[in-house]
Amino acid sequence: MHSKKLLTILLICLTYIAVGQSYFYPLERSYLLSREKNLYHKSSTLHTSIQPYFYKETSDYFTEDSLANGVQYNIRRNNFWNRTASNFLNSYLVKIDTGNVHLRAALLFDLEMVKDVEAKDSYYRNTRGLILKGDLGKQFSFVTGFYENQASFAGYVNRFIDSFGVIPGQGLTKPFKDGSAQDFVLPFGYICYAPSKYITIQFGQDKNFIGNGYRSLLLSDNSMNAPNVKLMSSFWKIKYMVLYQQFLDTREQNAGALLGKGYPRKFATMHYLSWKATRSLELGFFDAVIWQASDSTNQRGFDIAYLNPVIFLRPAEFYNGSADNALMGINVKYSIRNNWYVYGQFILDDMKFNELKKKDSRYPQKYGFQIGTRVFDIAKIKGLAVQGEINYVTPYTYTHRLSRQGYTHYNQSLAHVQNANFWEWVGIVDYNKNRWSLHGRMVRVAYGADTSAATNWGHNVLADIQQYPNYYQGDVKMLQGVRTDVTFLTGTVAYILNPTLNMRVEGSVTIRIQEQIGKPTEENIMVGIGLKTALFNKYYDF
After folding, report:
1. What is the tens place of the pLDDT at every residue in 522-533?
2. What's the CA gap between 216 and 178, in Å, rounded?
3. What is the Cα 43 distance to its own chain's centre?
């Protein structure tokens, strides 16, 4: 049934094809670093808080071809092997252009070896994949592909996998090689229809990010790819995005799953309005509602009340008298100079306005905020950028009294990798010159862990709030539970082989130190080398 619906949608889109690039740049931090200064320049009209970036929106600042300027290999294309080598190192392995049809295909891979000096252990990653993308006419484009992976991980990542049954940001897994490694697949893809410069419609399975920082407290690419329909409209100084999404709770298979119905589902509708108020100031307004598709008594499905694309969802949720999970947030970016901007976010989760009116209220409000800054060309050194960021989220934010309505997908937060009940400081240094790319990052985080599997001190966004009996008595404190401090330091040096696919040879050194009350200090010192096409972010800095 689902395949028939998808085929119908594809056929409808094909009837409208009228060549243009109507797809999005990869949502990978290092992919556009060399051009990031252009995007954040005061003269830029791009709404930088909505990511990934749409090709047509960045065409005034750069194109996919211009990313390779100055870093292309000059290989004579006088025979098949030379043409293949030129494509492999400069663009896509296969390129087909026939009038209104433009197709691109390439092999994807991530081959990595890591040695943990402190733990005296070794880890590896063996990823193979394929990407196929194309334009059919000026208005219709598509991207599809997959990654097939076998990998082993450091001890702290293995604990995460054992606890939640997923690879961070990459979905479900099964044991490989007697349980010492993991075997998992990551599919992705979407179709995109851009009938005009004002409207874009995307349907597929991918990730989204809202914000200007390294992290996002509103919506990030921390979790697994999610099926979604994305509507975007740009006009005047406004860009408006609506996301209809489906998420899965993969902790358990209900009775229906045993009959082939899959994991318990939940749906979400999200709105985000970005306003370029001035040349320097960009404001964004966010809201979201999440509800479970069914419970023990009711098969609800997608609630048509949340299909309305132009209203804030909190009034609709309140009007319906529902018990759904509602969130609201604000994103701010201000360009101080052409090479310097500051940014911030504020998230409110299920705020009780009637409690705010009570002077003696002890009801715990759930919220978080982010403050950060980024400067390019430090000391007039072209390509050198520095970033600093603080994230703070109170206990139980993103959770709900119905655990299946938490702000999660595939057992991970849709926002920050540390969930809630934490504060974090992030410092980043980047340097790019020609084919060389250097990156250094320090993450310092403190959070309150649970004392047992039966307790919930506000860090685990999958747990039910009712597991904490004193929640509604208002004795909630920041970093409650078992205080845990993590310091994460990493440095990478990369040589870019193919800028179009971000193909790189990369060496890295990572130090992770975890201190928790009542336990010995855990240290990892990891040295790695890899060859990869880096097209999506992997977050292991937790």
Report:
1. 999 999 999 999
2. 37
3. 27
User: In the predicted model, is pLDDT for residue 256 greater than 50?
Assistant: no
In a domain, 501, yes or no: yes
Report yes or no on 498 lying in a domain. yes
How far apart are the C-alpha atoms of 393 and 423, rounded to whole Å?
6
For residue 154, give both structure tokens: 């450091």
Q: Which residue reads 């410092």 in tokens? A: 427
CA dihedral sign, ordered 255, 259, 262, 265: negative
Residue type, 322: S
213 pLDDT tier (thresholds 50, 70, 90): very high
CB neighbour class for 454 (10 Å; exposed up to 12, middle 13-18, buried from 19): exposed
- The reply to whether 11 falls in a domain is no
In a domain, 539, yes or no: no
* Strand spans (E) along 152-237: 166-167, 171-172, 174-176, 181-196, 199-206, 209-210, 226-235
Q: Assign residue 373 the CATH number of its domain.
A: 2.40.160.130
What are the tokens at 300?
A: 């609800």
Domain of residue 36: give its range. Answer: 19-533
How far is it, in rounded angstroms, from Cα 433 to Cα 70? 10
Give the span between the Cα atoms of 337 and 451, in whole angstroms.
47
- The 10s digit of each residue's pLDDT in 215-237 is 999 999 999 999 999 999 999 99
Question: H helices of 34-106, where?
Answer: 36-39, 55-58, 80-90
Residue closest to 198 by CA, chosen among 239, 229, 228: 239
- CA–CA separation, 120 vs 116, rounded Å? 5
Q: Where are the beta strands (DSSP E) in 298-435?
A: 325-337, 340-349, 366-376, 384-393, 408-409, 412-413, 422-433
CA-wise closest residue to 294 among 250, 256, 251, 320: 256
Neighbours of 89 (CB within 10 A): 19
pLDDT tens string 363-404: 678 999 999 999 999 999 999 999 999 999 999 999 988 778
- Bridge partners of 248, per DSSP, are 265
Which helix (H) or strand (E) segment holds residue 243: the answer is: strand 238-248
pTM: 0.91
Number of domains in the chain: 1
* Per-residue pLDDT tens over the stretch 88-112: 788 899 999 988 899 999 999 999 9
Whole-angstrom distance, CA of residue 146 vs CA of residue 136: 21
446/485 Cα distance (integer angstroms)? 4
Q: Indicate the length of the chain as a whole number.
A: 542
Token readout for 4 is: 């028939």
Residue 149: its pLDDT value, please? 97
Contact 448, 480 (CB under 8 A): yes
Structural tokens at position 524: 């990892």
Lookup result for tokens 């649970």: 450
Integer Cα distance of 144 and 205 in angstroms: 9
